[in-house]
Fold:
Amino acid sequence: MEARLGRLEEQLESVGAPPDLRGIGRQLQRLQTMESQVEEWSKEVGELQAAAAALPAQAAGRQEVGDRQSAVGTRMVRLIEPLKERRRVLLAAKELHQVHHELEDEVLWVQERLPLATLKDLGTNLQTVQQLIKKNQVSAGRWGPPMASWGPPMAL
Structure:
């Protein structure tokens, strides 16, 4: 059990900050695996504690078993908090990457529509005015507002 905890602690230390959303997803999966391992090990420790309690009081090594169980339990408790913290950091990084990606999409959306929005041609006759109105209606229907899902803008 101690060796498994040592390997898990090393794995947790080796988890770095991934550069992209896919990497964050992989890291979250690894973290979930680690968390499930810790849960399984906690159950094992509980079973071992029950077995140790069943040993006769005079049995040789009972004190040593109890001490080792305490040490393993303490290590597991100390491991749970860094796992939670790492999950929080990864979820924040995931959200940051998603917002960054959405902002890039918004910038592209604005750049695509900017030439039409700054068009100075108002039409010189009825036919060109009607064509511009139709073009604007088609463009507005096709493009739609990209930020409809975001809600109202934030006040600065």
The mean pLDDT is 78.
